[in-house]
Amino acid sequence: MDEPIIEVDGLVKTFHGGVRALDGLSVAVPPGVIYGLLGPNGAGKTTLIRVLATLLPFEAGTARVAGVDVGHDPAAVRARIGLAGQYAAVDDYLTGWENVEMVGLLYGLARREARRRTTEVLDRIGLVEAAGRPVKTYSGGMRRRVDLAASLVGRPAVLFLDEPTTGVDPASRRELWELIRDLVDAGTTVLLTTQYLDEADRLADRIAVIDHGRLVSEGAGDQLKDQVGGAVVELSVPDTDRARTMAALANIGADPHGSDSGAVVVPAPLGARSLHRVLRDLEAAGVEPERIGLRKPTLDEVFLTLTGHATGTPVSSGKAA
Amino acid sequence: MGAAAAAGCPVVHPPGLRRTARDIAVMTRRNLRHTVRLPGVLLLSSIMPVVFILMFTYVFGGAVAQALPPAAAGRYVNWLVPGLLAQFALFAGAGTAAGLADDLAKGSIDRFRSLPMARVAVLAGRTLSDLCRSALTLTLISLVGFAIGFRWQTDLLGLLAGIGVALVFGYAWSWVMATVGLLVRTAEAVQAAVYIVVFPLGFTSAVFVPAQTMPSWLQPFAMHQPVTVTANAVRGLILGPGALPAGQTVAGQVGLSLLWATAITAVCVPLAVRAYRRTVT
C-alpha cells in the first residue's frame, strides 16, 4: 500500500465541559481513495475533519496531511486542502461564479488562472448556465455543488467533505455522489463524513467506523460486513405469524430489528446450512415465510454489531458532531 | 484536472505584504458586493442618520440654541452636523460586528480559516468595506444638513477634513467592534453590545449638546472621552476655533483624536486577529 496521505495517530480533542470528542483516534488514509468516516451524531467525525482542516487545536497525538504536520505547519496544510463544511458556506448575494473565483484568489492563484479554473470547475460540476445568477436563487443541491466547486478550485491534494449530502434531495444526492467519484479519478483523496450507511456503502472505498471518538473498525465495506459473520437470513412472515416465528427462531439469535417492519433477520454464520436450519425450524413451528433469502448484512447491521447501538441513537450531547 | 490535481502546493504568490494586500482587497470587494446587492439594507441604514438629524434639529434645536457658542452662528444644525459626523462614524462599527457575526453563523469564517490566505484579511476587508459605507453615510449627513440650513463656517476643505478625521476615528473604532463581534458571535448579542457601548459613549459626549451643560460629575468624562475629542476636532475644522471649549485648539483636538485612533488600532488589531485565530464554531 502507498504511504498514507492522511495519518492520524492517537488524536485527543476535549471540548469545554470535558466532552472527549476524539479519544486517542488513529486512522491512516491511502492516497487516491474516497475514505468514509461513519458514525452516529457526536461520534467525533466532524471534529476530526475540523482538526485536520486546521480549524481546531488538539491536545495530544499527531496528524499529518499530504506530508505536512498539522500541529507544526497549519499554513502549509491549508495550501494543500479543500473543505466543504456541513452547511454550504457560499455567499447568497454573490453569483456562483464570483463565489468560486473569490476562493480561487484566496488560494493565491493569479487572477487569470483563478478565472480559468473557475470556469473549468463550474463546467465540471455542471453549473455553467446558473453561474451568473446569485446563489440565493439556487436549490439546495446547486448550493452544495457551488460549495464543492469552491473547495476544488485550488486543486487540493486532499478534500474534506463534511456530510456532503445532508439535506439534499435524492436526485441531487446521486449527482453529488457521481461528482465525488469523478474527483478521485482525477487524483484527489477525499475524506468524507456521513451518517448515511448507504452513502458510505456506495461511495467510500474504505470506511472507518467511529464511535465515542475512537476507531471501532476499519476496512473496505465488504470487509466490515464480513466481520459481522458473513451473512444473514432475512425473511418476512404475515403479521399474525410474527410472534410464533420469533419464538421458533429465538434460540438461533433471530432479531426483529430488520429494516422492514415485517422482516426478521437471523445471523447465518454457516451460510446455506444456516438457511436450511431456519427453514426447518419454521416448518416445525408451522410457519410458512412469504419471502426468505440469504444475503450480506447491511452496514446498519454491521454498525449495530460493532457498537452495540443503532446509528440513529445519539450517544453524547456534547458539541462534537 | 489531470494528474496535477494531486501535485500539492497551489500557492502562486509567496505569502507576504503583497499577498496580504491582495487578500484584503478580495475580501473588501466581496463585502461591498453584499452591500450593493442588498439595497434594502443600504436604504435602511441611511434612514437612521436622516431621522437623527431631523429629530435633533427640530426637537432639541430650540432648547439647546442658547447654550451654543457664537461659532455656531445661532443655528443648532451647525453644531449638530459635525457632532453627528463623529457619532455615525462610530456607528459604522456596529456593521463590522454584525457582519462578522453573520459570517460566523453562516460558516463563511470556517471556509476562510481553512484557506491559505492572510489571517488579517477577513477582518481588514470587513473594516475597510464598512469604512466605505461610513463615508457614504457621512456624505449623506452633510447633504441633508445642508438642505435644512447647515453651513460650514470655515470652508469646504474644513468640511472634508472634518469628515476625514471622523472616518479615521470610526475606522479605529470598527476594530473594537470587530473584536466584540468575534467574541459575542450572534447578531442579537451584537445588537445588545452596540446599545450598551456605543449609545452611552455617543450621548455622554459633546456630540449633541456642549459638555459644559452636563452635571459636574459627568463633565470630566464627557469632556475628555474620545468621542468628544473627535466631535470637537470635527467641529473645530468645520466651524472654526470659536466652537471649541476655552483653551483648546483645532490642531490640538485633531492631533488628540488621531492619537486616540492610533492607540485604539494598536490595541485592537492584535486583539481582533487573536480572536479570529481562536474562533471555534
Shape of chain B: elongated
Average pLDDT figure of chain B:
87
Quaternary structure of the protein: heterodimer
- The first-level CATH class name of the largest domain in chain A: Alpha Beta
Major sheet of chain B: none
- Strand-residue proportion of chain B: under 5%
Distance between the amino and carboxyl termini of chain A: 31 Å
Q: What's the alpha carbon Rg of chain A, rounded to whole Å? A: 23 Å
* Class derived from helix and strand content of chain A: alpha/beta
Helix content of chain B: over 70%
**Adjacency order of strands in the biggest sheet of chain A:** 6-7-8-3-9-10
- Fourth-tier CATH superfamily name of the largest domain in chain A: P-loop containing nucleotide triphosphate hydrolases
What is the number of helices of chain A?
A: 11
Q: What's the gyration radius of chain B in Å? A: 21 Å
**Separation of termini of chain B?**
33 Å
